[in-house]
Amino acid sequence: MADRSTPAGASAAPAPAGTGRATNRGPGRALIAIYLLFAISASARAGYQLITKYDEALVAYLLSAFAALIYIAATVGLARADRSGRRLALVCCAIELVGVLVIGAASLLTPAAFPDDTVWSRFGEGYGFFPLVLPVLGLLWLRHTRPRQG
Amino acid sequence: MVCMAVTLATSAAGSNRFTDSAGVPRPGLLRPLVEWVIVNGALGTATIVLSLVLAAWSGITTLRNRPPDRSHLVGLAVLTLAVLAVAADILITVIGGASPAEAGTFWGYLVTLVCLPLLAAVLARMEPTRWGTVIVLVVCLVMPVVVVRLQQTWEVAGG
């Protein structure tokens, strides 16, 4: 157990040269926990929808499944915390942000195209807008822990 | 949210998980005391209240820049017992002949609910800083949502 007066993040072990600060320590661990919850709930939802009623709204369910894969990959990337993990997390957070913005706007403009909700519908309203906030937090965290120049 | 939990399980007329279409209580194993508690949704409500109390305590601990300590682990242990009681209640009701409206989603939520406090405890112990306390806080805010979704997927189709 760390000393109680240790400031957040100070207990992180030094990361290998060129990889920046570890993304899986301190606030990163809390972020990974939230990503893990989203990976579980999105996978369960997509799996259930695809298995039981894939013919009702196939596009929406495939989008849910895609979102689930992105959340899983982002969780793994942040948890690995090495160079390739950082890149994986960066790509996933970017896809998430674009996805939630595009799907969010599309679900409002053409509701008929989305007979059933996805994780990203209406900017993630069904999940307390967390799908909109999460990639921003992820990108900020990756920026905060980026490798120092020189 | 708490009000929802109280009212969700009660229905004056018509069938629900506790009464059949004639309003006659379904057979159960631990009646009548436990039945009174469950019919009033107290088990779900207790889980929600416990979870929110632990969330508030974790919020205070986070603001004080402290890692999760024994009090949080004890709180998560109590929460684990609460969700196991909820699961036992549901299993008894299902054995009694009732079934959830949205079976797949319902069982998914139930498994998730039972795993959540254990997940929080493991992750919090891995991170002995204030951010470990944040993990407990987040999970304790998610649990009431899962309990409410559990009650919704039992009663009505959709979602």
- Topology of chain B as a string of helices (H) and strands (E): HHHHHH
If helices are DSSP runs of H or I spanning 4 or more residues, what is the number of helices of chain B?
Answer: 6
β-sheet strand percentage of chain A: under 5%
Largest sheet of chain A: none
Q: Which quaternary structure do these chains form?
A: heterodimer
Structural write-up:
The complex is a heterodimer of chains A (150) and B (159). Chain A is mainly α and 150 residues long. Chain A contains four helices and no strands. Chain A has helices spanning 27-53, 58-80, 83-109, 130-144. In chain A, helix 3 runs antiparallel to helix 4. The longest helix of chain A is centred in the first third of the chain and has 27 residues, at 27-53. Chain B has helices spanning 2-8, 33-39, 42-63, 70-95, 103-126, 130-155. The longest helix of chain B has 26 residues, at 70-95. Chain B is elongated. The interface between A and B is medium-sized, with 26 and 22 residues.
Strand and helix map with partners:
The complex is a heterodimer of chains A (150) and B (159).
Chain A: H1 27-53, H2 58-80, H3 83-109, H4 130-144
Chain B: H1 2-8, H2 33-39, H3 42-63, H4 70-95, H5 103-126, H6 130-155
Helix pairs in contact in B: 1-3, 3-4, 3-6, 4-5, 5-6
Give a concise summary.
The complex is a heterodimer of chains A (150) and B (159). Chain A is an all-alpha fold and 150 residues long.
Key traits:
heterodimer; A: 150 residues; mainly alpha; 61% helix; elongated; disordered N terminus; B: 159 residues; 6 helices
